[in-house]
Every structure is written in C-alpha cells, then in structure tokens.
Amino acid sequence: MKWLRGGGIWGFIVRRLLLGILVLFLVSVIVFAGTQALGDPARAILGRDATPDRLAALQAQLHLDQNVVGQYVQWLSGLLHGSFGTSLASQQPVSQLLGPRLVSSIVLVVISAVISIPLSIVIGSYAALHREKKFDTIVSNVMLGLASMPEFVTALLLVILFSTNIFHALPSISPVPPGHRAWEYPDELILPVATLVIAVTPYVSRIMRASMIEVLESDYVEMARLKGLSERTVLYRHALPNAIGPVFQVTAISLAYLAGGIVIIEYVFNYPGIGSALVDAVTNHDIPVVQALAVLIAGLYVVLNLLADVATILVTPRLRTRL
Amino acid sequence: MTTDQLPDQQGLTTGPDPAVTVRDLQISTTNGTPVVDGVSFEIAPGEVLGVVGESGSGKTTVGLSLLGHARRGLEITGGTILLGQEDIRAMDDAELRRLRGSLVSYVPQDPASSLNPALRIGTQLREVLEAHGSTDDERNAARIAEMMREVALDDDPAYLKRYPHQLSGGQQQRVGLAMAFANRPRLIVLDEPTTGLDVTTQATVLATVRELAQAHGVAALYVTHDLAVVAAVATRVAVMYAGRIVELGPADQLFEASGHPYTRRLVGAIPRLTGGRSLIGIPGHAPSPAKRPHGCAFAPRCRLRIDECEVALPEPVQISPDHSARCIKALEVVKVEQSGLGDPVDLPPSDTEAPVLSIENLVARYGEIEVLHSINMTLEHRECLAIVGESGSGKTTTARSIAGLHHDWSGSIRLGETELAQTARSRSTDVRRQIQYIFQNPYGSLNPRKTVGESIGQPLRVFGLASRREADKRAGEMLEQVSLSASYARRYPDQLSGGERQRVAIARALISSPSVLICDEVTSALDVSVQAAIVELLGTLQRELGLSMVFVTHNLPLVRSIAQKVAVLADGHIVEYGETSGILARPQQEYTRHLISDTPSLETATSEVQATAQPTDRPTEREPTG
Amino acid sequence: MSQTELPTENAAALVEGVDVPTPAGRGSNLIRRSLRLGRTRVGLVLVGILVLIALFGPYLAPHAPDAFVGRPFSSPGGGAALGTDYLGQDVLSRFLHGGLDILILAIVSTAIGLVVGLAIGLIAAYSRNWLDEVLMRTMDVIMAFPQIMLALVAVTLVGPKNWVTITAIALTTAPRVARVARGAAQPVVERDFIGATEAMGMSKARIITGELLPNILGPMMVEASLRLTYSIAVIAALAFVGLANDPNAANWGTMISENQGALATQPWGALLPILAIALLTMGTGLIGDGIARTAAGIDRERGDE
Fold this sequence. Notes:
The complex is a heterotrimer of chains A (323), B (626) and C (305).
Chain A: H1 2-5, H2 8-37, H3 41-46, H4 52-61, H5 68-80, H6 94-129, H7 134-148, H8 151-164, H9 186-216, H10 219-226, H11 231-243, H12 245-269, H13 274-284, H14 287-315, H15 317-322
Chain B: H1 2-13, E1 20-29, E2 34-43, E3 48-52, H2 59-65, E4 74-83, E5 86-87, H3 93-99, E6 104-107, H4 111-114, H5 121-130, H6 137-150, H7 157-160, H8 169-181, E7 187-191, H9 199-216, E8 219-224, H10 227-233, E9 236-241, E10 244-250, H11 251-256, H12 261-268, E11 317-320, E12 323-325, H13 330-333, E13 357-366, E14 369-379, E15 384-389, H14 395-403, E16 409-415, E17 418-419, H15 429-434, E18 435-438, H16 452-462, H17 468-481, H18 498-510, E19 516-520, H19 528-545, E20 548-553, H20 556-560, E21 565-570, E22 573-579, H21 580-585, H22 590-598, H23 602-610
Parallel strand pairs in B: 3-8, 3-9, 6-7, 7-8, 15-20, 15-21, 18-19, 19-20
Antiparallel strand pairs in B: 1-2, 1-4, 4-5, 9-10, 10-12, 11-12, 13-14, 13-16, 16-17, 21-22
Chain C: H1 11-15, H2 27-34, H3 38-60, H4 91-97, H5 100-127, H6 130-143, H7 147-158, H8 162-189, H9 192-200, H10 204-212, H11 217-240, H12 252-259, H13 268-302
Helix pairs in contact in C: 2-13, 3-4, 3-13, 5-6, 5-8, 5-11, 6-8, 7-8, 8-11, 9-10, 11-12, 11-13, 12-13
C-alpha cells in the first residue's frame, strides 16, 4: 500500500482518481436510494387510484420485485454498460432519449464557458491592475447585482429586454423543431448563452481579481520590479502564472455550476437539453430518466473537480515537486 | 539648517565622492502624514551604513526610497537622493527601471516570499542580467556561475534548475545576494536580510555581505532592528526613531559614547554575552506617524527630558566631525560614561533539594520522525532553566511536551512526585494549574474576540477556582502586577502593542499561582527594547513569587541575565547542560562554541568590523552547499 | 517556531493607531461598521422594503388573492390597479400576498443549513484527524448534486410539502457552509490561544463554541447572506416550474410562470414578481458584500493577523 501514500505526482493522481471513483459510487448509491429504495416509486408514479395489475406490471419493469441490493446491482451494472433503462413516459431507451439532448446541453455549456472564462480572466485581471479606480468600482457593482439574481430572473429580464417589450431583436422561446440540433438555430442560443455567461462571469472574475491582487501585492512581484524588469515581464512572467492557478479550480466549479444552472434556464427558453429533460421527467415522474440525469450531472461535477485538481498541481511547481 | 551643514559634513565624513547622498528626505502617506522626515546621510563606496530602528521607525521606507520606490499608500514628498551625481527623484519610470537591479539593487527581508515560486532560480538570476542589456547567453551563464561561487552556492547547472522552495532559508537568501550583486551595482540596499535565519546562517550571510561590499567597492545600506547585527556588519550607523535619524556616527562611537538618550537606552537593552547584567527596557512606545509631537519624538519616554525638548524639534548637534545626534543635551549626554547597562544580576543559587520538574529519557516524535532523543534534565525549586537551540533543535517540542501540548512523547516527566500524563487534557486540574505556558507569539496567544480581562481570568474559571466576578477582580490585580493599569481589562488584544500583549499573556499564566512557568521564545516577536523589558519583568516576577521557570530561546546572550542553568539543544540531543556562567565562559562542545561565536553581539562585533579585511574562517552552514 | 511575525513596515502598520480601531470582535459591531458602506445601506433598504411587502402586504391587498375581479389579462384600471392575471385575479393583491411563503421557507431552510454546516465545519476543523476527512468527503458527495436538481427530485418524489423543500435546501446548503466554516476555522485552530485553552483542559465543546466560533462570525455572516440569496432563488425557481406547495396560492414564483405568456400585452403580472425577486436577492447580495468588505478592511487595519 506504499504507493498509495508516496509515489510523487502519479501517486497523487492515482489517489485522487480512487477517491473520485469512491465519490461516484456513493453518488450512485444516494441517487438510487433517493429515487427507488425509499417508498414505492411505482405508486408515486401511478398515483393512489392505480389498479393492482398496472402497479404489479410497473413494479416488475422497475425491478421492484427483487430485494433492494439486487435492484441496485442490476441498476448499477446497467449504468456501467451504458444502459440507463427505459423511459416510462416515452417507452424509449433512456440513452437514446437523452443522447441528443446531452449534446445540445454540452453545446450550450461549452459555448458559455468559452465566452465567460476568458472574459472573466480579462475583467478580473484588469480590475486588479486598476484597483479601486472607476472601472473596478463600476464592474464590481454591476457584477454584484447580476450575480445575486436567480438565473431564471436574469433569463426573463433578458427576454423582456430583447424579445418582447423593448427590442424585438431575438426570439425568446426557442421553438427548435424536434429532431433538429440546437446549433442549427444560432439565434436560439444567444439568450440562453447570455444568461449563463451573466451567471458565471461575476463569480469567476471576482476570484481572478482577488488572486491577481494577492499576487501583485506579493514580495516577489515587488522584488521583480526592484530588479528593474519591465512592467510587461513583471506582469506576464511573474504575476500571471502565479495568479492563474485558482482559475482551474474556478473553471471546474463554474462548469459544474453551469450543469446545475442549465436546468432552469433550459426550461425558461424551452431549450431541448438535459435540463428541460429533467424538469419534464420530474413532472412526469419518469424515474429512470431522473436517475440517469442525476447520476450524469453529479458525475460531471466529480470528474470536473478531479481534472481541476490535477491541472492545478501540474501548473504549480511547489505542489508538483513536493508530492 | 541641516542641508547647510551638509557640504562640510560630507567633506569630513566620507571622502570626496560619496556613492549616495540623501538630503532632507521626506516620505509621507498619500493623505499627507509624514512617515519619514528630514533624513540626510551619505555612503562612500565600499562602506556599509547600518540603519537601526524599531518597528515603525521608517527604516525600510528609507531603504526602498534609494531605489526610487515607495510602497502602496506612501510617496516620496521631499528632499534629494543622489546616486553619484544622478538625482533619483528626477527619474522617470524607464530611467528608474534601468537603475534598479543594475546600479542600485535590493536584498529583501524574507527570501522565501521574495523569490517567485513558479520560476527556477536560474531563470530569476538570468533575467536580472537580461533586463539590463546583457543578452549573451554564454556570458550570462558564466557570470551566474561566478556569482553563485561568490555567495558560496553550487554553480552546477542542475542546481540552477531548482525552484526556490527546494532551497533552505539561508540558500534562498544567498540567491538573493547573488541577484543583488549580479550587475555589480554601486549601491546595495539590504533590508533585514538575516531576520528569521539561524545564527550560524546569519553569520555566514553577514560575512558574505561584508566581503562582497569591500571586494567590489559597493556602498551598502543595511537596514535592521538588531544593533548587534549592525555592529557586526556596518562601519557607520544611523539610528532612526519615529521617522527621523536621531543619531549618526561611526559604529564604535555609537556603542561606546552615544549622544542620544534613545541610542543609549537601545544599547542598554541588548543582551550581552559577558557580565550577566539585568536588561533595561524602555518604557512606553514610539508614537505613530500621525501622533508625533512637535518637539523631540523621544521626549515623552526620555529620563533627561526638559521643557525645551517639547518646544521644537532639536537640530543635529555635532559631537565630533562625523558624529551627530538630534538632542539638545547631546554634548552632555556623550560625556556621561556609557555603562547604559543595568546592575549586575545576582541570581540566587539553585536549591537542589527536591527538583520541581524532572525529565528522564524524553523521546518525542512528529509522525514517524523522532525529533527528541532521550532528553534528561531537572528543574530545581526557584530555578530558571534555559533551553537554547536553533530552529529545529527540538527546544519548543521539549517545552510543549512538558505542558502536554505535544502529545506524541514517551519517557518520564515528573512534577514533584507526580508522573505526568501525555496530554494536558488527561492530567489533573491541579497539575494543569501548576504548569503554565507562555507562547512565543503574543499576537496569536490571546483570543482577539475576548477582552484582556476575560482572557486573564479564564484559567481561574476553567480550573473552578473563582467566580466570574472574583476572576475579574483578580485579573485587575494581575494587570497591575505586570505593570499595566487595571483599566486594560476592558480592552481587546488588537488595541495593545506586542509588548503589552505579552504582559497580558504573563498575567494569564500567573493568575492561577503556578509552580512552573514555561516561556517559549516569548520575546522573539518583539523589538529589542521591549524584549529587555519583558525579560526584566519575567526575572523579577520569578524571583519574587518563588517560581521555577523553563525559558526557551534561540538567543544565547539573553539567557545570561535570567537563567542559572542552560541546556543547549541541537538536532534533538542535549549538547551541553550546566551552569549558565560556566557554559558561556568555557563552552566544552564545538557546537556551543560556534553558537556563541556566531551570535552577533556588541562586544565581539565592534572589534570585528575593523578586522574585516581578513574574514575569519566561519563555519559553513550545515546544509548541502557543495 | 520560526519567527515570521517580525515587524513589517508597510503603510498599514505605520498608520495603525492613527485611530485606535474599535474592537471588531462582536458580530453586531461588524454589522454596524459595515453600515458605513453605501452598498450595505442600499441592500438593507431593498431587503427592508420587500420584507415589509411580504409581511404586511396581505393586510393591504384590496382583494382576496383568489377573487376574480375582471377578464383575464385586462390592463390596469377599474378595480385592478395593476390589471388582472391569466384567470382574471387582481395582480396587485396576488403580488402582496405572494412573498411571505418564499421568505419564510428561505429563511428557515437557510438557518437550518447554516447551523448544521457550521457545526460540521467547526468539528472537522478542530478535530484535525480522520473525522475531518470523513466529514468533508461526505460533504463533497452531497455537493455533487446541484441545489436545484436535488430540490426538484425531492419535491417530485415525496411531494410538494414545506418540510421537503426545507430539508432539500438545508441539506444542500449545509455542505457549502461547512466548507467555508472549516476553511475559516482552520487558521484559527492553529493559533496559540486555542493551545492555551487546551493546556487549561477546557472541554472540546467549550473550545469550539466559546473560542473558535466567535472568531469566524465575520465570514459566516457573509456566507449566511450568500446562502439566503441562493435559497430564495431555488425556492422561487421551484414555484416557477410549478412545484410550489400549493399551486393555486399566490406566490411570486408561480405568478411569473402563470403570467409569462402575456409579457407583451399585460406585463405587470409577471414583471412585478420578477422585479421583487431580483431586488430582494440583490439586496441580500449587497448586504453580504458590504459585510465581507468590512471584515476584510478590519483585517487589513489590524495588519498583524
């Protein structure tokens, strides 16, 4: 077991991976326990006045006739083989149902991240370099206001501003026809992406600003200036590489946050992704779909955090060589 | 007036061509409060000027101004700074950039935080050459190798590939020195570069500074709070108090016949290796910049104060051609024989009947590493035992094991007849009451959310010895016993100075009438004058109350005036153990001898500076230097 | 054991003592000082107005929340000062009735989450051993579920009942609070005054509540306002997707989804609750930021911490 403790950076990554797998396993237990083992989902789905026949049939379909551990093992092995069961509402395999929606959501999240993260780094660094000047003050106040609002309120305010009362510029409720891809309709993407960007940017830029300020105040940056280095070298060689470390963590956290944030935003814009699928599944009591989505979203969180940890270690020599 | 006198002074003091001339320098906060005012001095090539002052005196601010730099919230508002003939204050940003790191370089206080953690040391050395126009890779590599050798570091390319955190503190500081000397500057500003280093490391760094400055004819400004260090490195010294130079002159004159009462008190506060005399602190503390009086800033604390002192700022009085002091009475002061020191301490002999504390075969670990190996010592009734050692020697672990704060130890620690359990929590209330611990850092040892009175009274309540009301009353009494007024009880720790906080910590330790007091480096975070006052207080209280005391310190001279017995610790072993006077006068072990000779002190230093040309063969640091 | 606390000469340390800092210790004091900042005051006014509306609105409403006063989506005028909603009920009356539920649910669930999270975070930070590891890894697992997702699933499976909403939000709030509490408490645990109380043999519970807790009140107050902001958002969002405890009751979240369709013609029905939620959350956000800035400022003033 020595490699579990020592082993330099690879030992660390292996340890981190094992921990990640453990967390994923626990996540699956919780999802399963929360959705299936507690109470009788069949009754929850069918309601009080269900006939015994239909109840029995549904119980069989959900494997409720087996014991709890057996049910879990069956469900988990299905998950590991990429089979998420069958949707109760549409009677389609869940993976087939969610596949295209997952792609649509990923497109939404990735576009938002690609816009908001560099934007945040620039805004945060600029605000840090011009601390307590006009730009910093205005940006911090605006960001604070935007960051406090629930996403669906931001989304609705955008709708009011741009597609109903004031400017009739953009479509609000996206009527992407079934069977089509979201990115075939770039207009439809603008408002959802804008909402996500507004939700994430204040947070990331704030952390970037704090990190940059800490670095700029550090002794080694003062020393670099006192060595007569040009301001450019000070900034790009001495300050930025040290300030960027936390951004990996923040990126992961904000991506994970986006994964939760899309639930309501997709619902508001009627965007055909996994978020609106979750709301639909929840309203229809479509347990297999709910389970699949819960595992998917929570798993995403775990994996992103893992990647961020590893990335942080790799860019920080002090951590990299000490492990 | 000061500036008028300067041309004469200049001619007389440092020869015709000073490397740097500062006249009437004023540095203020951005809202206009002067932090440094009326500072004038010059430094000749090859000369080291020491700038001594306590925290807040403005010494670092003066040092940085020589690079045309002021920290956030401060700006240089008046005076001239000439480097040779060039006026630094008149330079624009680009000119300043060319100046810094080439003509004037800087060695920072904390090498660990001043080297960029993300860059290899080779890169950081190279860029200071490249930034000043030296782009030839081969020449740069050769120059770096040369510099590394000059500061006694490995010049192997593999070594240069290391990151700062892979070096020890002493090695980091020598990289800092190499960087500072890389472009052969005319002036180098050293800002307490040995603070936080062990005495052995400090000694080698000081020697390196002296040698390099002399060998290359570099003028150096050495900023420090430690008079003994300045005595070891500087030929002339400027003493700063409340933003002004109060005395300026040759090092030996300053230490033997100073003309300013503050300098005298400061010298008196320094612990001496020879002749165990009591230390005398300076009561009160320096005024903050916004509250400085019109007259002499030291007047409120000065025993020689006359009404005239508070009317106007005293001008510098020339004591000898190159020695001046800002004191109306300077010419009288200088004539008084500078005993400066307190009365010889006559420590009562140890009473060896029944030891209060006996430690046998103490072994302590941190995880899997054994940090203390079979320690044996005894503490007699009414005795003070000093545990002396460098960082990592295990001295604090010993103290913490006795107090039950370090849990992973084996062996036997007995309080009288009682065998002590490992952790404080598993000991009886009475044992916990009898052993009291005072921590190194008074900023951390008091709960910032509790009033001073609550903190002091706390032991009584936890031990169930007094009601809240009674505890408050006793806390008031204890405050007076440690020379604070009882009204301090209602204050919070952040309203007190460091020395005052440490007094509060002492009051808290003594309120439950303990029999053993453990002091863990209690003065190392304090200014010298405050340190003297705290040691004086501890010694007096110990003798008056008949306490037994364990006094942990890295400062060997400090031991002299307080402890009957010393244990010298190194790497978890007791190297030497016995009577204080015997060990300091006739150390038996090589290690103790080095520790004594490396400790900067006024006696050894004043003679050493003159003999600087031939550096003594100093022991090299115990770290891989190649 | 190294001497890192040596006097530095930065400007802050020099100017320290220009005015003797009032002890920033007590929580009430921190809030009072934070009120010197404009943003805290603005936040307080916003929150104050909306809380007053939520509390006393029902008594001021001209109509019952479920009374039909006109045709659906009729414009302001007549008996309905701000027009009617999708069923023809008075928008103003429903708005005045619709805030209390959200507010109470948000405050109760946040409070529970805070207390639980604080306890876990403090115990983890103080124990410094396997317990710390186990507690925080457990928190990690819970954190993997986005708040809104967990709330949605819980409400669907168990039913839209108040206790379900409260439990779901408290459960997702606690780990986030625990993380912040542990982070804030860790450096405090390392400080010597904790060692001093251990040497006295003070009980662990007393050390945690009497010594540790008062020292992290600043960050915890910031966290409280942040968490309240998020709780309001989640609770309003639940109602917005149609999972309010009583789908027919007046509720700002429900009102938005009911009247969203008529934004172009009779905007008040949706706009009023949208603005109310936006201003309420902005208010709590501003208060939190004000406290955070004040706390940071105090730390800077002290220089030594």
